[in-house]
Amino acid sequence: MSGFPVILSSPSGGGKTTITHELLRARPDVGYSVSCTTRSARAGEIEGKDYFFLSHDDFAAARERGEFAESAEVHGKLYGTLKREVDQILASGRHVAMDIDVQGARQFAAAYPDSVLIFVLPPDGEVMLARLTARGTETPETLSRRLQSAIEELRAIGSYRYVVVNADLAQAVHDVSGIIDAEAKRRTRLTGLRVTVDKITDDLQRELDHINRSRD
Q1: Which residue range(s) make up the domain with 137?
Q2: pTM of this prediction?
Q3: Residues 134 and 211 in one domain
Q4: Three-class HEC string of 44-71
């Protein structure tokens, strides 16, 4: 069985990043593709673990070389997912879990058509606003931009195969994990299935032939 990308999208405050981190802790078969960004590192963030922090020029050059599976400008900063990071995890047989905004998810699904797209929905607007303001980092201007982006992202929910409501974190992680397990069992993802079915069929046919010969 081979791994596949799992893309979680949500408006800011929806909880996609927290759910992704919980999945990584709970499932050894899930890896995380470290993204690139042109924003400055926040307190506690580590280069190569949380993000690859690039200058605007370096990011633009990498994009020009076609190194990104997706890239986007979010709140004035550039973000992108490197193909080499994704391919490295998939080559190990693990799934790739990533939290990506809506526009990035569209690009990524075009580059990796077997991706599983999950939209993480907050239970209501009040909870989402509370999560945003609890950070204590939002100015009226940045909050306004995030809210406008959230409205646009919510309107794109129809392009996602799955929706998970993040009212309770543990339940949301459980739901996303269940989606991964179900997708892993899809017929088109099961390697060697045809060989297995043919072997069972041959065994049954030999027994059937034996029974028929015994009756003659």
Answers
A1: 5-185
A2: 0.82
A3: no
A4: CCCECCCEEECCHHHHHHHHHCCCEEEE
